């Protein structure tokens, strides 16, 4: 350990911060946050700003979740149609088709088989195919093509 490195000091991955900033530009998001163990990195930009602001902070100590947010989230979840909800596994941009002008992977009323790609979520220039967790008929498509999505956001409902 040298003089510049103190025991317990956080090491910032500059390339990760740059990649997150590029993701902000690509998705028109104003903020993104990632956690890896005890490390938490948040990159934010003021709305309308040209250059993102970089912020790195240690992860807070885990505390029990408050009951109020769970109650507040319940009405939004209750509004979802019944069936199996496909959720975004990552933050990124949702695409309903393989390319512009191509037919959608899964449209309302279409039948999908378990494992079929129902949409793509792009994150950091990587296209992530999102598979159907079950076979059935697409009951609802909850996002638009090219829409930014958050982690665990409901995307499609299959019945």
UniProtKB/TrEMBL annotation:
Any one GO MF annotation of this record:
acetyl-CoA carboxylase activity
Q: What is this protein called?
A: Biotin carboxyl carrier protein of acetyl-CoA carboxylase
The Lipoyl-binding domain sits at 83-159
Question: Which keywords does the record carry?
Answer: Biotin, Fatty acid biosynthesis, Fatty acid metabolism, Lipid biosynthesis, Lipid metabolism
Query: What pathway is it annotated to?
Result: Lipid metabolism; fatty acid biosynthesis
One short Pfam name that applies is: Biotin_lipoyl
Give the organism, scientific name: Sphingobium baderi
Sequence intervals crossing the membrane: none
Q: Name one GO cellular component term.
A: acetyl-CoA carboxylase complex
Which GO BP terms, alphabetically? fatty acid biosynthetic process
* Role according to the record: This protein is a component of the acetyl coenzyme A carboxylase complex; first, biotin carboxylase catalyzes the carboxylation of the carrier protein and then the transcarboxylase transfers the carboxyl group to form malonyl-CoA.
Query: What PANTHER family is this protein classified in?
Result: OXALOACETATE DECARBOXYLASE ALPHA CHAIN
